[in-house]
């Protein structure tokens, strides 16, 4: 008997992006959406158009660019939200409107201030309104796992009768357990008429670390769609991680009687892209994509793996697209070899991007003997910024334990050079103050600074990530260099450029 194919509904660009420190610009969202198509997800939730102008623009752009997958937009149970979602999806090949309202007593009483009957009326009215604008409507009962089951089923029945083809059961606060989730799915199947011909979905948050387990349990109980984010990014402790669900279903399809249409060899690359975009790194022991996910330290394990990998490995690095990392390029490598290796790693930049990457590669090769695949990935996941931005021309820092750290910096914008000097608590602080004197960015607070070494060795490429908080949100900047002060300056300039870009977009 063939296995049930489960739909993978990716909400990295909506539930993932709305979590602090994970905001993305339009170009980044488009790059991720395109990568999600390569990965083979069924549905891309591209944003919440009524929530901001930026979200509406992102959904509109993704809807026009993405072919193959369903593009979904979120809307509260109000007409104006549904109008905004329909408008943003107007160019989509396969549009879906996702309408949600809370159904738990605590949410209805304290957040919505609505009675049960009012919620039922809103669902009836809004789902049918959404259906009049879009052939594919999904309904979510927010906080479903803390809702009264009988009432939840009345709400889901109302949504189904009004035309929703997918009924989603979110564990909004990450409260449920695997057994409870399975019994809830079974309850809904039993109590909602016509549930067999609808798709039931699970959307699990990870507050108790159970999001993936709860999702797999929902699938085993009959859910036909799971909602997840790449690397599990999302509100608080995050959402269920796509890569863990997909590999869970691939390796243990026997336990769930289910499979997905995802091309798992795209998982690693997708994960790296999302981490690079939000300025984070996988914890080393992160399942599937962490650095240690396939390494064996204990002698007894190494011995077993040498004899037969299957002794201690339930999946192979190649299954998620991790290629052999024994090849390195150097300063004599030509453009062709560079382009070929990038393609083998899954990156196919256009000509302008390739020129920029190659220039960066050459600069790096002058300072670093062997350029590894990791270095190449770091170069190729550098995010593009617009042309009219500040770039670093040169800098000098003076620092020491008995001198005042000072930085002289020269930036360039549209061919014009700007120079200034500042002192600070350390060389990086002095450099940032000098940059501020030149650019005069809007008020902000630097709330996160991290440094990460990309590959091993003394000449390792350092990657600095800075996060700035402004009045209207956060931006992330990233800088790469073998010199950590330079990487720090590049990261800050990158973040400030993004801040200016955001301020421009909001005009
Ligand atoms: O967690 C949640 O309940 C949600 C809904 C909007 C689906 O994200
Ligand atoms: Zn959610």
Question: Helix and strand layout, with pairings?
Answer:
Layout: E1 4-10, H1 12-16, H2 26-39, E2 43-47, H3 53-65, E3 70-76, H4 79-88, E4 95-102, H5 105-112, H6 116-133, E5 137-142, H7 149-161, E6 166-171, H8 178-191, E7 199-204, H9 211-220, E8 225-228, H10 242-251, H11 253-256, E9 258-260, H12 267-278, H13 299-307, H14 335-344, H15 351-367, H16 373-380, E10 391-398, E11 406-413, E12 416-423, H17 427-439, E13 445-453, E14 462-470, E15 473-481, H18 484-505
Parallel strand pairs: 1-2, 1-8, 1-9, 2-3, 3-4, 4-5, 5-6, 6-7, 7-8
Antiparallel strand pairs: 10-11, 11-12, 13-14, 14-15
Zinc ion is lined by residues 15, 170, 172, 203, 205.
What does this structure look like?
- This protein has 507 residues and is α/β, with parallel strands linked by helices.
- The chain folds into 4 domains: 4-278, TIM Barrel; 295-323, no CATH class; 325-381; 391-505, Alpha-isopropylmalate synthase LeuA, regulatory domain (Double Stranded RNA Binding Domain, 2-Layer Sandwich), CATH 3.30.160.
- Helix content is 41%, strand content 20%.
- It is built from 18 helices and 15 strands.
- The chain has helices spanning 12-16, 26-39, 53-65, 79-88, 105-112, 116-133, 149-161, 178-191, 211-220, 242-251, 253-256, 267-278, 299-307, 335-344, 351-367, 373-380, 427-439, 484-505, and strands spanning 4-10, 43-47, 70-76, 95-102, 137-142, 166-171, 199-204, 225-228, 258-260, 391-398, 406-413, 416-423, 445-453, 462-470, 473-481.
- It has an 8-stranded parallel β-barrel with strand order 1-2-3-4-5-6-7-8, surrounded by 8 helices.
- The chain is globular and about 75 Å long.
- The N and C termini lie far apart (58 Å).
- The model has no long low-confidence stretch (mean pLDDT 91).
- Zinc ion binds at residues 15, 170, 172, 203, 205.
């Amino acid at each position: 008997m063939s296995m049930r194919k489960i739909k993978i509904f990716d909400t990295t660009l909506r539930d993932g992006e709305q979590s602090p420190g994970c905001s993305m610009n339009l170009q980044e969202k488009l790059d991720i959406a395109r990568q999600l198509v390569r990965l083979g997800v069924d549905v891309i939730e591209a944003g919440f158009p009524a929530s901001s102008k930026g979200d509406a623009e992102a959904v509109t752009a993704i809807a026009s660019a993405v072919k193959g997958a369903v593009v979904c937009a979120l809307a509260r149970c109000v007409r104006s939200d549904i109008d905004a979602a329909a408008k943003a999806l107007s160019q989509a090949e396969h549009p879906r409107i996702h309408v949600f309202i809370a159904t738990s007593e605590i949410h209805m009483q304290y957040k919505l201030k609505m009675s049960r009957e009012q919620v039922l009326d809103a669902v009836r009215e809004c789902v049918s309104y959404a259906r009049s604008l879009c052939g594919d409507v999904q309904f979510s009962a927010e906080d479903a796992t803390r809702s009264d089951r009988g009432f939840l089923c009345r709400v889901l029945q109302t949504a189904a009768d009004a035309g929703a083809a997918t009924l989603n059961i979110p564990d909004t606060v990450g409260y449920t357990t695997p057994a409870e989730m399975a019994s809830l799915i079974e309850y809904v199947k039993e109590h909602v008429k016509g549930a067999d011909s609808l798709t039931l979905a699970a959307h699990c948050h990870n507050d108790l670390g159970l999001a993936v387990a709860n999702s797999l349990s929902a699938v085993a109980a009959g859910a036909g769609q799971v909602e997840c984010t790449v690397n599990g990014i999302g509100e608080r402790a995050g959402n269920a991680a796509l890569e863990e669900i997909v590999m869970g279903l691939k390796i243990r399809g026997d336990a769930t009687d289910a499979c997905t249409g995802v091309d798992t060899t795209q998982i690693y690359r997708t994960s790296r892209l999302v981490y690079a975009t939000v300025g984070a790194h996988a914890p080393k022991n992160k399942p599937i994509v962490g650095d240690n996910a396939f390494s064996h330290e204990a002698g007894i394990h190494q011995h077993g793996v040498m004899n037969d990998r299957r002794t201690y490995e339930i999946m192979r690095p190649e299954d998620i697209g991790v290629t052999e990392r024994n090849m390195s390029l150097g300063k004599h490598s030509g453009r062709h070899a560079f382009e070929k290796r990038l393609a083998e790693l899954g990156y196919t930049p256009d000509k302008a991007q390739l020129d920029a990457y190659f220039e960066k590669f050459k600069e790096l090769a002058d300072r670093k003997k062997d350029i590894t695949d990791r270095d190449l990935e770091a170069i190729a996941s550098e995010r593009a910024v617009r042309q009219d931005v500040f770039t670093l021309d040169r800098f000098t820092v003076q620092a020491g334990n008995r001198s005042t750290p000072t930085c002289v910096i020269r930036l360039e914008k549209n061919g014009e050079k700007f120079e200034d000097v500042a002192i600070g608590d350390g060389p990086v602080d002095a450099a940032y103050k000098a940059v501020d004197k030149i650019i005069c960015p809007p008020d902000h607070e630097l709330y996160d600074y991290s440094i990460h070494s990309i590959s091993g060795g003394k000449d390792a490429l350092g990657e600095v990530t800075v996060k700035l908080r402004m009045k209207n949100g956060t931006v992330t900047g990233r800088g790469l260099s073998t010199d950590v002060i330079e990487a720090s300056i590049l990261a800050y300039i990158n973040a400030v450029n993004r801040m200016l870009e955001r301020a421009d977009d909001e005009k």
